[in-house]
Amino acid sequence: MKCKIALVLMLVLSLLIVTFSGCVKEGAIPPPVPTPTPTPKTTPTPTPKPTPIPTPTLTPLPNPKYVAGDIVAEGPTDQDGLPTIVSYDKNTDQYEVSFIFKNEDGNWGHFLNESTDWHDREYVEGHCTVVIANVDLSSITIEEQKISPVPTSKTTQATASFLTISPSEAKQLIDSNPDIVILDVRTFGEFYQEGHLKDAINIPIDELPERVGELDKNEDTIVYCKSGFRGAQASQILADNGFTKVYNIDGGFDAWKLKGFPIVMSNT
After folding, report:
1. Residue with the larger pLDDT of the pair 268 and 127
2. Which residue has the higher pLDDT, 173 or 231?
3. d(CA 131, CA 72)
4. What is the DSSP letter of 107?
5. How confident is the model at residue 231 (pLDDT cuts 50, 70, 90)?
6. How far apart are CA 120 and CA 216, in angstroms?
7. Nearest residue to 101 (alpha-carbon basis) of 144, 152, 71, 156
8. DSSP conformational letter for 139
9. Could you tell me the pLDDT band of residue 84, with boundaries at 50, 70 and 90?
10. How many CA atoms lie within 13 A of 255 on its CB side?
11. Residue 197 above 80 pLDDT?
12. Given the DSSP bridges, would you call strands 221-224 and 246-249 parallel, antiparallel or unpaired?
């Protein structure tokens, strides 16, 4: 009997131990979850603003120097009405066209206009001394040490041996002289794609020095390009080769079209 009671007590004690153990497990506090370390906030580095480029101030040149042998011809104007100049230096056998530019400080200088036809830019960039005219020579940039004096129109005509004429004057010459030679010095592509003056001969300016013998130096010759710059240089080439009646159209083919004067299209 005592053995049975002892056995029952042992069973009850075992159950109590098991129950107590389960309660401890159920009520056990879970291990603490580690708190993540917060990532420190970083302030973005501001992008530095570009330093504005100051307007260049052109240094005055009080006494421009004359280079013997320079030939200067007053050229056409660009689309803003600013004067341009064609120069030829016999010492280097080079030509150049420049535009007149007045910056915000009121000083005069020169530059190649970004709006200029790329054919003209391609030809004039990198060519010899720029000669400025139609402005006060006492305010030309210091870089232009080699500069010729500005001639009067009569002096220009006598020296350069060609005239710059308006589209209207060119049309009058053409109408009054059906035998006049019309020389287009634009590229082959410009000549055929954009049209040209009637009866015009196309000799690109780069080929003109080698092909000048194809023209009669005793004939009146009208020269033009797209906007007047290559035309002025081509006119000077003709003058240097003994042509005495050479006329460059001021503003070139573009100015001719703006006047509404006739053009023709050719098939390649």
Report:
1. 268
2. 173
3. 7
4. -
5. confident
6. 26
7. 144
8. G
9. very low
10. 25
11. yes
12. parallel
- DSSP letter string, 214-254: GS-TTS-EEEE-SSSHHHHHHHHHHHHTT--SEEEETTHHH
Task: Taking residues 58-62, report their average pLDDT.
Answer: 34
Region of 260 (left: φ > 0; alpha: ψ -120 to 50; beta: rest) is left
Contacts of 126 (CB under 8 A, 6+ apart): none
Q: Is 77 helix (H, G, I), strand (E, B) or coil?
A: strand
**Regarding the domain delimited by 161-268, which CATH topology (the fold level of the hierarchy) does it fall under?**
Oxidized Rhodanese; domain 1 (3.40.250)
What residues does CATH 3.40.250.10 cover in the chain?
161-268
Is 82 buried (19+), middle (13-18) or exposed (0-12) by CB count in 10 A?
middle
**In what side-by-side order are the strands of the sheet with 94-102?**
70-77, 83-89, 94-102, 108-111
pLDDT (0 to 100) of residue 146: 33
| Whole-number CA gyration radius for the chain | 43
Q: Can you tell me the mean pLDDT for 23-37?
A: 58
Task: Please state, rounded to an integer, the average pLDDT across all residues of the chain.
Answer: 64
Which residue numbers are catalytic? 225
